[in-house]
Amino acid sequence: MKLLIDTDAFCKLAICDLLEAAVDELGGNLRTCGRLPALPYMLQRGKLPTKYGASTCSTLESIANRMPVVHSTNGSILDQFLQVNEIDAGEALLFAQSIEGEIPLITGDKRALLALKKVNGIAALLSNRIVTLEAILLALCNTHSPTTIHSNITPHTSVDKVFRICFPARTIDPTPCLQSYFSDISNAVSPIHLWEPIALEESDEL
Description:
Blueprint: E1 3-5, H1 7-15, H2 19-25, E2 33-34, H3 39-44, H4 47-52, H5 54-64, H6 75-82, H7 89-101, E3 105-107, H8 110-115, H9 123-126, E4 130-132, H10 133-144, H11 146-153, H12 161-166, H13 175-189, H14 198-205
Parallel strand pairs: 1-2, 1-3, 3-4
């Protein structure tokens, strides 16, 4: 696997028809992007069908079934994450696999990210591997134009707070808003250094 994605990021990007573009942005494709074993079952019952609708989840399930499954990983690393209440078992598995495989992880779980500070010695191991939704959307805006990404997300703003605020119905450039959110989460998770789009890296150097 070249890439990992958590359930939250998978659903939101796929609903907006941006999943394949996001994965491609990070040098992978759906066949090399790992997802949690429980994802298809979560799309069949429980909170996800209630939130997104059964028809949408059925479509997402067909996409998920094309992706490889993340299996168990180094027990000692995994146990460190499992000891933190704010990090659930699925996210713990993805964090551990990201470290063991030295591969990026797209995640929408801010609660888990903020809790990473509770895991000793983890900052260096995960730095530059955690890809937030804001970061990948900034990268997509740079690659495909803000207008294109805006048109994909605007019909689905109800699924995410950041979508709703940064992509209002009227056509505006979402980049400044996304950069603000990215800056906030970057500061909050420091000393872990989040993955940044090239455009942001260049602006930091100026």
